[in-house]
Specification:
Largest interface: A-B, 91 and 102 residues
Shape of chain B: flat
Order of helices and strands of chain A: HHHHHHHHHHHHHHH
Order of helices and strands of chain B: HHHHHHHHHHHHHH
Number of strands of chain A: 0
Oligomer: heterotrimer
Number of helices of chain B: 14
Distance between the termini of chain A: 59 Å
CATH superfamily of the largest domain in chain A: MetI-like
Radius of gyration of chain A: 25 Å
CATH topology of chain B: MetI-like fold
Number of domains of chain A: 2
Helix content of chain A: over 70%
CATH architecture of chain B: Orthogonal Bundle
CATH superfamily of chain B: MetI-like
Strand content of chain A: under 5%
Distance between the termini of chain B: 21 Å
Shape of chain A: globular
Radius of gyration of chain B: 25 Å
Chains: A mainly alpha (297), B mainly alpha (303), C alpha+beta (357)
């Protein structure tokens, strides 16, 4: 016996097949095709031989799958003067990203902690300027920073690029942690002070351990942002430390002679692999980061 | 903060400790942010070329800037690009958010698909779309091969149309972000409002237009500010997709400035350009943030 | 006619049956309160009457017409939500007229109705304000006005006072009661707060686990609860319960428990009790009197001063029993006291079936 009466069933079915419903799915599926198309083309191109690309159709699946473009991209593509593939850029990016994630998170947490709980006088004004600073176009700060780094002897070096990332990510990191700590009840902090905790002890032993969710969000945002950065790496990293994005652009746009589209696409995927994997793995945390970072001020 | 509050030695120590901890932030704000803005401002009033000089020339650089054809072209491009990009992102992002909010199946998968482009770098996006829009091997050729020999899609090498290709590529990348932010706003709307609207007999689309959209005002404003700053900063996409070409057809201010900072060695002109960019951004951001603060204060007073 | 008739209503969500075979008749012009704990189905019932939730089975009639499958907006009902759900970006006037505008009602008619309702609810000076500029009571009236403008015959209220602080709640409760007296429309009101139910209702429907436990006027439900659930749910502090057995003799029926016995021959038994029947005796705190000549003895465990009365908790028969005492107390905590039960006010329930005897 059906668990639902006939009119109810008929009504429910009518709702699902309404033209509006079909329209919704039609739109969403078309949009999905639009969004997935470049990914599909990237993948498909990277597994074709150049002959297939020249003679074949952009959308066609590879008739003969080859991983040669991937090998070339990784080991022997020309990134300017050297032709050692993009793997160098990969390791450079790794070396840049790790300190450029850890340090800004620590500083952001420290700033957020001091601003939310200790509220030293004048700190809010400083914070306000920092928030405004997030909107300053990087070109305004470019040359002065070049001069500062040169003076410190850090221009075109790994510590230099890390310092630059630290400077540029401070507003967002501080904002994230400040907002997070503001949501923590003041009573908790006061209880810790009554228990005898000082500035550093409360930070290290109470607040940091409580910050795991926001640290995860901050890490995801920072890894993605730093890995995908181009302009800062271009200017500040120095030829030996060029991140993968810069080398990728070199591979594709500054190559003389025949353009190897399959190698180009393989290189592009390789460059996007880290942030995309992080994105697909982190799911909701990624979105949380966007939402938190967008609530400026 | 009452200035009349006398600080006891212990309180003084406490404040000092906090300030010590905030030293990195303070030095960053003062030296890196304020300092560099002031420095660039100063340089823009000089005739520095490769190195900063001490010769002041008043507003001459700004004058020269606005007589520079390439700069004017880049501003024109930026304006056109900006309007199209922001409108398209808002529209597409809003539609995506609204449609996903209709309790569809596989909502999680769809959201993942719409947002993944944002996880890619602008460089990668530019390169992929450059490949796809390649007239010889890309979409134009593919469609022709499928039986439409007169199909034309060579915008990327067309001086008049190239800016639209950059719009397409960056809208593809950023719409997911707009969708995510607006969807969060949509989900924050009291469910009872939907029930009340149903009781009032208001069709779904009308609820979105007349009730939900006005309620989303703050979210839309935030999204607009984010998109606007992204427009002013656009650099990576242009460099990777068209290198500013063909010719100078897709030149943008950020690229113009970078070239004059480094390649063409005219830091005074470049600084003037960057200050102009800064003012453009501040003109929008400062009122926005002040309005936000005011709104937050009135809400706090009510609570 | 504006009454509501529900026959054999069942509402299922997937595999869970929230409401099963429910029958209910709502009398015209009454203030019917659906009372029960969270999850008892009262909100689901209200939403089903509104048409916001589809019935899985059964029939709903409003004003004599079958409305089981009719859209909410055509049922001639109005609904007031917990958060009032006023459209925040519209003025009061627009909030009330929006639905009418959408349905194409002529402008003159809309103006006429809005004006009439605004006068009735004293909203005329507030018509151009936005919800954020209104007080809680004003918002409640606008929410009601929104339904009145659509010439609703029945009003549904979904816990409208739950989110408010105690003072505002009491004030709006009174406003609501005055409004009902003035409008004389049928009102169906959902709440988990028994004080609201007792003060507002002409009849209370006590619900639990998707079923109606009892329907009756507040006094009846309070004084003569149908089962143990209703007995324990209404009244604060809750009714005191004593387990015992009935000793049925030729000339008397007695309730016997540990260390005590009462003559309950005068109790209005519905069916003759059997000897040795296991029962539960319920007595309300106000009917448990502390008297120096009382037959029973206990020690005071706890005293809760309530301003105009005290709630005294007694350690008795292995449990805590409450008594309401007005006036000054002649004793303190841990003191031994004597008390009696007003036998005429007890309720007897069969221990197994939990039903009233």
């Amino acid at each position: 016996m059906s668990s639902i009466s006939a009119p109810a069933l008929a009504r429910r079915q009518a709702q699902w097949l309404r033209p509006a419903r079909i329209g919704v799915y039609a739109f969403l599926l078309s949009a999905a095709v639009f969004f997935l198309l470049p990914l599909y083309i990237m993948l498909v191109t990277s597994f074709k031989s150049m002959d297939e690309i020249r003679l074949g159709n952009l959308f066609a699946l590879p008739i003969q799958v080859t991983v040669e473009p991937w090998v070339t991209a990784w080991t022997s593509a020309c990134t300017g003067v050297a032709c050692e593939g993009i793997r160098g850029g990969f390791w450079n990016s790794v070396l840049i990203v790790i300190p450029s994630t850890v340090l800004p998170i620590l500083l952001g947490a420290l700033n957020g902690y001091a601003l939310s709980f200790w509220k030293p006088r004048g700190a809010n004004l400083l914070f306000g300027i920092l928030m405004l600073g997030a909107f300053i176009p990087v070109q305004v700060m470019m040359f002065p920073l070049v001069r500062i780094l040169a003076t410190l002897g850090l221009f075109s070096s790994l510590p230099g690029i890390v310092l630059v990332h630290l400077i540029f990510s401070m507003p967002v990191m501080t904002l994230l942690f400040r907002n997070y700590y503001q949501a923590i009840p003041q009573e908790l902090f006061q209880a810790a002070r009554i228990d005898g905790g000082g500035f550093w002890r409360i930070f290290v032993q109470l607040m940091l351990p409580m910050s795991t969710p926001i640290i995860v969000v901050a890490a995801i945002m920072q890894v993605t942002g730093v890995w995908n950065d181009y302009i800062l790496g271009l200017v500040f990293a120095g030829r030996d430390n060029l991140p993968m994005t810069v080398q990728l652009n070199n591979v594709i746009n500054t190559t003389t002679g025949t353009r190897l589209y399959n190698v180009n696409m393989a290189a592009t995927i390789l460059t996007s692999l880290v942030p995309l994997t992080l994105y697909f793995v982190s799911g909701r945390w990624f979105v949380r980061g966007i939402a938190a970072g967008a609530v400026k001020g | 903060m009452s200035a009349a509050m006398k600080l006891k030695p212990k309180q003084l120590l406490r404040q000092l400790l906090s300030w010590v901890a905030l030293l990195p932030m303070a030095s960053t704000v003062l030296v890196a942010y304020l300092g560099s803005v002031l420095w660039s401002l100063r340089v823009s009033f000089t005739n520095s070329r490769t190195f900063p000089s001490d010769q002041y020339v008043g507003l001459a650089q700004y004058q020269r800037l606005f007589e520079n054809e390439r700069w004017l072209l880049s501003l024109q491009n930026l304006a056109l690009y900006g309007v199209l990009f922001i409108l398209a992102c808002l529209l597409l992002g809003f539609l995506l958010a609204v449609f996903i909010d209709q309790k569809v199946m596989a909502e999680g998968a769809l959201r993942t698909v719409f947002l993944y482009p944002y996880a890619m770098s602008f460089v990668a996006t530019g390169l992929v779309w450059q490949w796809m829009l390649n007239p010889g091997n890309g979409i134009q050729q593919a469609v022709r091969q499928m039986g439409f020999p007169n199909f034309n899609f060579d915008w990327i090498i067309d001086q008049d149309m190239v800016i639209y290709t950059i719009v397409i590529a960056t809208v593809w990348q950023a719409s997911g972000l707009v969708m995510a932010l607006l969807l969060a706003g949509l989900r924050g709307i009291d469910e009872d409002i939907w029930k009340a609207a149903r009781m009032d007999g208001i069709p779904t689309w009308r609820v979105y237009v007349s009730i939900v959209l006005p309620m989303l005002g703050p979210s839309v404003a935030t999204v607009f500010v984010l998109l606007f700053t992204a427009v002013v900063k656009v650099f990576d996409s242009v460099v990777s997709m068209t290198q500013g070409g063909p010719g100078t057809a897709s030149e943008v201010p950020a690229k113009f400035i970078m070239e004059h900072l480094f390649g063409r060695a005219n830091i005074a002109l470049a600084s003037a350009g960057s200050i102009v960019l800064l003012l453009t951004v501040l003109l929008l951001v400062v009122p926005f943030m002040l309005a936000r603060q005011r709104q937050a204060r009135t809400q706090a007073e009510k609570a | 006619m504006s009454s509501v008739s529900i026959r054999k209503l069942s509402v299922r969500f997937g595999a869970t049956e929230v409401i099963k075979d429910l029958d209910l008749d709502v009398i015209e012009s009454e203030f019917l309160v659906l009372l029960g704990p969270s999850g008892c189905g009262k909100s689901t019932l209200l939403h089903s009457i509104a048409g916001l939730i589809d019935a899985s089975d059964g029939r709903i009639e409003i004003g004599g017409q079958d409305m089981t499958w009719v859209d909410p907006t055509d049922r001639r009902i109005g609904m007031v939500f917990q958060s009032y759900a006023l459209y925040p970006t519209m003025t009061v006037e627009r909030n009330m007229s929006f639905g009418l505008r959408i349905s194409g009602t002529p402008k003159a008619e809309i103006e006429r109705r809005v004006k009439r309702v605004a006068e009735m609810l004293h909203l005329a000076p507030l018509l151009q304000r936005k919800p954020a500029q209104l007080s809680g009571g004003q918002r409640q009236r606008v929410a009601i006005g929104r339904a009145l403008v659509r010439e609703a015959a029945v009003f549904l209220f979904d816990e409208p006072l739950s989110n408010l602080d105690a003072k505002l709640r009491a004030e709006l409760r009174r406003e609501l009661k005055l409004l009902h007296k003035h409008l004389r429309s049928t009102m169906i009101y959902v709440t988990h707060d028994q004080v609201e139910a007792m003060t507002l209702a002409t009849r209370i429907v006590v619900m639990y686990a998707g079923k109606i436990q009892q329907i009756g006027a507040p006094a009846e439900v309070y004084e003569k609860p149908e089962n143990l659930f209703v007995a324990g749910f209404l009244g604060a502090p809750a009714m005191n319960f004593l387990h015992g057995t009935l000793k049925v003799a030729a000339d008397s029926i007695r309730f016997e428990s540990v260390g005590m016995t009462f003559d309950v021959s005068a109790y209005a038994f519905r069916t003759p009790p059997s000897n040795g029947q296991a029962v539960v005796l319920g007595i309300r705190p106000e009917n448990l009197q502390l008297r120096s000549d009382g037959a029973l003895q206990a020690s005071v465990s706890l005293i809760e001063p309530m301003g105009n009365h005290h709630v005294v908790w007694l350690d008795f028969a292995g449990g805590l029993f409450s008594s309401v005492v007005t006036g000054a107390l002649a004793f303190g905590v841990d003191a031994p006291v004597r008390f009696t039960l007003e036998v005429g006010q007890v309720s007897l329930f069969d221990r197994a079936s939990e039903q009233r005897l």
